[in-house]
Automatic annotation (TrEMBL):
It catalyses: 6-hydroxymethyl-7,8-dihydropterin + ATP = (7,8-dihydropterin-6-yl)methyl diphosphate + AMP + H(+). Residues 3-130 form the 7,8-dihydro-6-hydroxymethylpterin-pyrophosphokinase domain. GO terms for molecular function: 2-amino-4-hydroxy-6-hydroxymethyldihydropteridine diphosphokinase activity. The lineage of its organism: Bacteria, Bacillati, Bacillota, Bacilli, Bacillales. Its EC number is 2.7.6.3. This is 2-amino-4-hydroxy-6-hydroxymethyldihydropteridine diphosphokinase. The keyword Oxidoreductase does not apply. It comes from the Bacteria. Keywords: ATP-binding, Folate biosynthesis, Kinase, Nucleotide-binding, Transferase. The keyword Chloroplast does not apply. It is an enzyme of class 2 (transferase). Pathway: Cofactor biosynthesis; tetrahydrofolate biosynthesis; 2-amino-4-hydroxy-6-hydroxymethyl-7,8-dihydropteridine diphosphate from 7,8-dihydroneopterin triphosphate: step 4/4. It comes from Gemelliphila palaticanis. InterPro entries: Hppk, Hppk_sf.
Length: 162
């Protein structure tokens, strides 16, 4: 199972999420299998000023995690992402959250994502599409039960999957 986290904090946020999923679908190596509900959340990390819309997307992919990283960074760039400061507001952010059962820790990629257990805007939408799986020996359901911060479902469905 491969799961991507996608977020946007610059208007039109919802449109950027749709465009990102469309671009994933256009890629001949990627097949979008499922899309979570859309969550409205406060910025994380103390830099961004705007609220984010966040989703998780389950995909099939027939190449390496590093290759997927290159492909999603190209999508971010094509949609207008400019990387200046870490955790700033952005038109689109696409992260590899999990890539099958791989554990990767390199200079360019950490999988499972290093903040996956701290971000409710990741584990809530992951639960929508993955159910109660274990991440780093912690169940998504237990993370949700322990969560003390409010998280709002912004929209039940982003789009239909072809």
């Amino acid at each position: 199972m491969i799961v991507l986290g996608i977020g946007s904090s610059i208007e039109p946020k919802l449109e950027y999420l749709k465009l990102a999923v469309d671009e994933l679908n256009k890629n001949k190596h990627i097949k979008v299998i499922d899309i979570s509900k859309i969550y409205l959340t406060e910025a994380w990390g103390g830099v961004a000023k705007n609220q984010f819309l966040n989703i998780c997307v389950k995909i099939e992919y027939n190449n390496t995690p590093e290759s997927l990283l290159n492909e999603i960074q190209k999508i971010e760039l094509d949609l207008g992402r400019i990387r200046k400061n870490h955790w700033e507001d952005r038109v689109i952010d696409i992260d590899i959250l999990i890539f099958n059962d791989l554990n990767i820790n390199t200079d360019i990629l950490t999988v499972p994502h290093k903040y996956i257990l701290q971000r409710n805007f990741v584990y809530y939408p992951m639960y929508d599409i993955c159910g109660d799986i274990l991440i780093k020996n912690k169940s998504l359901k237990s993370l949700i039960e322990e969560n003390k911060e409010f998280i709002e479902v912004y929209l039940e469905k982003l789009m239909e999957i072809n």
